[in-house]
Design goal:
The complex is a heterodimer of chains A (432) and B (290).
Chain A (H helix, E strand, L loop, with lengths): L1 H28 L19 E7 L5 H14 L3 E7 L2 H13 L6 E4 L3 H8 L24 E2 L2 E2 L2 E7 L3 E3 H6 L8 H13 L3 E4 L2 H14 L5 H5 L11 H15 L12 H9 L3 E4 L6 H7 L6 E3 L15 E11 L6 H12 L1 H11 L2 E2 L9 H6 L7 E3 L8 H15 L4 H17 L2
Chain B lengths: L1 H31 L17 H8 L2 H31 L5 H15 L2 H12 L5 H8 L16 H26 L3 H9 L4 H12 L1 H16 L3 H6 L11 H11 L3 H31 L1
The chains are: A alpha/beta (432), B mainly alpha (290).
Chain lengths: 432, 290
């Protein structure tokens, strides 16, 4: 009897430890053993140094390998070790990596909540005085700034607007609409033709598509960020209008069957089959769609305009500056790390990266040779709004907003969903 | 006296492992639950019981996660235990077909959770998934669903994937239990005129108590701790309709940087598991002695 009690006790403690492990593991787990080769804090150029470069874009590895080899040729005393963590696990794992004693020297971060958390923990080296800052478009550097300091340098520009099938639009005589009624009519025409108007990709589109829908309904950024201090509510008119419009799209059957159960890959595949008008993701999906359909049709970017008339629309789309390069404040090789970022910031290297990965960059004077990038270049001159969701620096609030969108799409009454979402936000704010 | 000393000596390595890998993290986790540590900064504030008070009085997502966890665990424990027993009874005889089928049922057990998640995400896809396609082919198209995209259905859809992944493991436990029952007992019952159902209910089922105890306790703890499958398939969504305690701990600790708060959830989680497991052992022990 006693033995079984002891065995039960041990078993229970095991279960407990597994549960508690989440809480206790972060404090000291940091280094994953693959960080910089430690040893010495020397930044002397004659000393052989190895720096680690941590990011989430596995698809960029071949291009980065090429760029890193060029960097190593020019800087024979510096070796760059690249580490890639998939984007869906990046936030948790990268933060654990950075808190360790041998965390990455150069690392990337997402703007918004992740950037704020890392900045708050003092893990960024201030890059304000670096010469390479001049290589960037100054109006695209804001997402890496805090308290007047340039803590990280956003390297990529992404357009978070639906990708649309230009050939299908031409075939049906459709033009990108300039107001809400026009958008509804467009969706109806696509549906009447037997096409899916909007392909939605579950969790990802919930945030991305909401950005487009809300940009003109809540044009004042202070109202949006007011969610963070309680000065505005998810039940306010602009947000509520957005939820009602999303609900209208869902109820009229303008999304494909089961939008919330569709993965990003499946959504991309459905769109690439050519039987749908829009893919509610962003410019980053143009390359995968092209790959899936052997460049069978032309694509453009188009955000839904939610206002009653075109002149009420302040913005025509959304952009994001992301893939923010930073230097770990705990790095023992800061000079080498900054040298690497300096190298990436040179227009010819940034062009090599951009054209190799089909990503637009924030660096000035870059020559885009990739046809998809060339076609997207004019977007930069349009009235774009920085992705509102990235201005929310509390991830719990971001999730509350996203969950509200999902609730609306799954059929919850918009007012009830907004109230539920606001309750979650209030709870998040009380956790400060 | 000498024997007692040597007993203690032999206990040292195990005791040390227990201390380092179980006791210390547990106490550390408990102490963190009284702080507001964000997981990144060097300092943190002692907040007393406020994390616990917040959880019980204010946190609707936590309440939803508790409900979802219970729905998930109950579905998994009942269905998984039932099917593993049924399959074990069917596959008890050592024929070639049965050996092949046992291997087939055991196969999902060796797959990594991420692979299971990938397979089932594809099966459940409302547009290109196999499940809806099969339902349409057999004339049950009206049952087609957005399995993991429907808030009312998602937790049970995840439970099905979990059941598929682990039934083979429990099947082996039941097979071992069944093989330990002397053949003569069934023979005698049959000679006495007992029906198949009576033999199962009066002979086999009582003798399977040890196996059932292991199966139920193991399944309960395993399904309480389910994380990877839910994380990979829905990450708690749509909305928070599939948020379970394990994913909630993860979200609080690693996405919201509320490590102290997450530790409080983990502590409550541990207490719930402990109580339920003890109750189960109590009930099953009572059944054994009855």
């Amino acid at each position: 009897m006693k033995k079984s009690k002891i065995a039960l006790g041990v078993f229970l403690v095991g279960a407990l430890t597994a549960a508690v492990g989440c809480g206790s593991g972060t404090s000291g787990s940091g280094g994953n053993g693959t960080g910089a080769n430690g040893g010495g804090s020397s930044t002397n150029s004659s000393t052989k140094q190895t720096i680690t470069f941590l990011h989430w874009r596995g698809e960029d590895v071949p291009t980065f390998n090429k760029i890193i080899s060029e960097f190593e040729q020019k800087n024979p005393n510096i070796t760059v070790q690249m580490q890639v963590i998939p984007s869906d696990q990046y936030i948790a794992q990268a933060q654990a990596n950075l808190t360790g004693s041998h965390g990455a020297d150069v690392f990337t971060s997402f703007p918004g909540a992740e950037f704020t958390a890392i900045a708050k923990a003092g893990l960024y080296t201030d890059l304000s005085g670096q010469a390479f800052i001049q290589d960037y478009n100054s109006n695209l550097l804001g997402s890496g700034q805090q308290d007047g300091k340039q803590l990280a340098v956003p390297y990529q520009v992404v357009f978070n607007m639906p990708v649309y099938n230009q050939d299908l639009f031409s075939k049906l005589g459709l033009q990108p609409p300039t107001d809400w009624n026009g958008f509804l009519q467009l969706c109806q025409k696509l549906k009447a033709n037997g096409d899916t108007p909007i392909v939605f990709a579950g969790k990802v589109s919930a945030g991305q598509f909401f950005n487009d829908m809300v940009m003109n309904n809540v044009p004042d950024p202070k109202v949006f960020t007011g969610l963070l201090d309680g000065s505005s509510k998810l039940t306010d008119s602009g947000f509520l209008k957005t939820f009602q419009q999303l609900s209208e799209l869902a109820k009229k059957g303008y999304f494909q069957n089961g939008p919330l159960g569709t993965s990003q890959d499946a959504a991309t595949a459905i769109f690439a089959q050519g039987k749908s008008g829009m893919l509610a993701l962003g410019s980053y999906q143009i390359t995968p769609v092209n790959k899936d359909n052997n460049s069978a049709f032309k694509m453009g970017l188009m955000a839904p305009i939610t206002t009653d008339s075109p002149d009420q629309a302040k913005y025509v789309g959304i952009d994001t500056t992301t893939f923010m390069l930073g230097v770990n404040a705990k790095s023992q090789h800061k000079a080498a790390a900054e040298k690497f970022i300096d190298f990436l910031s040179q227009p010819d290297i940034a062009a090599e990266y951009a054209n190799g990965t089909s990503q637009m960059v924030t660096v000035k004077n870059v020559n885009y040779t990739d046809p998809a990038l060339k076609a997207m270049e004019p977007e930069l001159t349009k009235a774009l709004r920085f992705q509102p969701m990235y201005t929310l620096t509390n991830q719990q609030v971001v999730d509350a907003v996203t969950n509200t969108v999902e609730d609306v799409i799954s059929g919850t009454d918009p007012t009830a969903a907004a109230e539920k979402g606001q309750k979650a936000i209030d709870q998040a704010l009380s956790q400060k | 006296m000498k024997t007692k000393k040597s007993i203690y000596l032999f206990m040292i390595p195990g005791g040390l492992l227990f201390l380092v890998f179980f006791a210390v993290p547990t106490i550390y986790g408990l102490s963190l639950s009284f702080t507001n540590w964000d997981g990144l900064s060097n300092g943190f504030k002692w907040v007393g019981f406020s994390n616990y008070v917040n959880l019980f009085t204010n946190d609707t997502t936590f309440h939803q996660a508790v409900g979802n966890t219970l729905k998930f665990v109950v579905s998994v424990v009942i269905i998984q235990s039932f099917f593993s027993l049924v399959f074990a009874l069917i596959l008890l005889r050592n024929t070639k077909v049965n050996v092949f089928l046992r291997t087939l049922y055991f196969f999902p057990t060796i797959l990594a959770s991420v692979s299971v998640a990938f397979i089932w995400t594809f099966i459940y896809d409302p547009n290109i998934g196999i499940l809806n396609a099969v339902l349409k082919i057999v004339g049950l198209g009206h049952l087609a669903h957005a399995w993991i995209g429907d808030p009312t259905m998602v937790i049970y859809s995840l439970a099905m994937a979990e059941i598929w992944a682990h039934t083979g493991q429990l099947l082996i436990i039941y097979l071992a239990g069944l093989q330990q029952i002397p053949v003569e007992m069934n023979e005698v019952a049959r000679i006495e005129g007992a029906s198949r159902w009576q033999i199962f209910w009066k002979v086999t089922w009582p003798l399977l108590t040890p196996a059932t105890t292991i199966v139920v306790a193991y399944t309960t703890i395993q399904s309480f701790r389910a994380f990877d499958l839910v994380y990979a398939m829905t990450n708690g969504g749509p909305g928070s309709s599939s948020e379970i305690l394990a994913t909630y701990i993860y979200h609080q600790a690693f996405q919201y940087n509320h490590v102290g708060y997450a530790s409080a959830v983990a502590m409550i989680f541990m207490v719930v598991i402990a109580i339920i497991t003890m109750l189960q052992f109590g009930i099953l022990r009572f059944r054994k002695s009855a």
